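Translate structure to sequence.
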């Protein structure tokens, strides 16, 4: 499922740095309840999300997980609460549970993934 609104706003692709590829793949497959397609490009290993245009990426020379820096809001459609409920059992940490951003802007949830990256989920409901 592609988010046309995100594409209209200029987001075309994102990459999330991981230090343990298998652990991170399992984390994201668990919270989004979907299989991720793996691409091994020799110097770079990626697993592609089905629900949005992005991937987790492993190359210890190019990608370093971080809780600081750019914050990506990942599309959770109408499943924000369900996805949020799977974050801690999958090895992540909830920083902020679902809350209203502002009227007309939807809701968000803030978390760290299994690799220590700070990310958010977004939904209009």
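Result:
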């Amino acid at each position: 499922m592609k988010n046309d609104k995100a594409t209209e706003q200029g987001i075309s692709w994102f990459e999330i740095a991981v230090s343990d590829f298998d652990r991170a793949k399992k984390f994201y497959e668990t919270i989004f309840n979907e299989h991720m397609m793996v691409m091994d490009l020799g110097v770079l290993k990626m697993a592609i999300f089905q629900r949005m245009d992005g991937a987790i990426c492993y190359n210890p020379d190019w990608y370093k997980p971080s809780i600081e820096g750019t914050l990506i809001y990942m599309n959770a459609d109408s499943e924000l609460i369900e996805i949020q409920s799977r974050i801690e059992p999958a090895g992540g940490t909830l920083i902020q549970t679902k809350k209203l951003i502002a009227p007309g802007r939807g809701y968000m949830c803030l978390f760290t993934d299994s690799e220590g990256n700070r990310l958010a989920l977004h939904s209009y409901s």
